[in-house]
Amino acid sequence: MGSRDGSAVDSAEAGSGLAVRLHQDAPIPLAAEFACAPGELLALVGPSGSGKSTILRTIAGLYRPGAGRVAVDAETWFDHSAGVWLAPHRRRAGLVFQSYALFPHLTTVGNIETALGHLARGQRRARAGQLLELVHLAGLEARRPAELSGGQQQRVAVARALARDPKVLLLDEPFSAVDKTTRQRLYRELAELRRQLRMPVVLVTHDLDEAMMLADRMTVLHRGRTLQSGPPFELMAQPDTPEVARLVDLKNVFDGEVAEHRPDTGVTLVAWAGYRLEARWQPTYVPGQRIAWAIPTASVILHRRDRPSRGERENPVPGVVTEFVPLGGNASVAVRVDGAPELPLFMTIPTHVARRNRVGIGERVTASLLAEAIHLMPREDRGTPERGRAP
Question: Which pTM does this prediction carry?
Fold first, then answer.
C-alpha cells in the first residue's frame, strides 16, 4: 500500500468505517491520513513524539487540530473546511487511556455505569453486568480499582469504553502497564473480543511485536506524518523508504546500485560493496540508478560448517562475527562483511544452530542473502553518514 493510504481513506469516507485526515504545522505538526474498516484493527506505530496519542485524542474529540476531517460510517465528526466539530459527548467513540483513568472511589460496576447515561437508570446495572461478562470480570462487580490487578483494571476500562455503544474503539497503549504474562492473556482476549465487535479498532503502540501480532494493518508515523500503511508483514518486508525501514527496526539497510535486470529469470542484480547480489525482479528502478536496499535479519541464512546446502549458493557473503547476543531461543549476530568493513550485516538464528556452528565473536562465517527478500527503495538524500550507508 502507498505511503498515504489515500484510496483506503477515500473508500472509508464514502461508506463505512473510520477515515482520518489531519493537517497542521503547529503546535504539534500533523500530516496524517489513514482509514480503518469495520472489524479491522489498525495499529499506529512510531517513536515518541510522532503524534500517535494526539491523533487518537483528535478522533475522540479531546483535541482540535488546525485542519482536516474525521468521519465514521459517513457521519462527520470533524471537518475544518465545513466548520463541523462535534463535542466528545456527541461522538460515539470508546477510548481506553494508557492509565485506564478509572474512578478510584467507584466500584467496577459504578465505573461502567458512568458511561451509560444514555440508558434509563433501571437498565444500567443489567447492561454493566453484561459488559463485565463480555470482558471476563463477572463476579467482581463490587470491587474498587485498588482491589483489582492491572489486567483487571484494563478490562474494566475496555468495558467502560464499550458501554457507550461506540462506532469506533480507541486503545492508547493499553498493555503497557501490565506484566508480560498478563499481556499475552490480554492479547488473546482482545482477539476474541474483536470477533464479536464489528467496529474499527485503532491501537496506539510503541511495541512493533505487539502491532505485528494484533493488527490487520499498520500505519507508521513520524513527527505527525503518515509515512506508510499496509499489512504488518508486508510493511516490515517492503518499506517504502529507508526512513520507514529504520522506524520498523529493519536493521539491514544499505546503499547500492542497480546493475542489471533479467526479466526472463525474474531477477534484478544489485551492485554492493564489490558483490553482485541477485534480488527479485524490481523493474521500477533502472540500471545505473543508486538505490537503497534492505533485507530482514531472518532472511540472512548462516552457512553450516559441517554440511553445505544447495541454497547456500544464493548471494553468499563471507565475513567475521563482530557481535553475538543470545536472546532466549534465538541469537542476534552481526557480521563485518569482507569488502564492506564498516557495514555490519545482521542475522537472527536459533541459539542451538549458533552453538553447533561455533558462531562467536572473531569467527569467520559465510551467510546467504535470500534473493526474494531483498527489497529495493529510493536512495535517501542524507547530509550525514548513518549506519548502513555505503562509503
Answer: 0.85
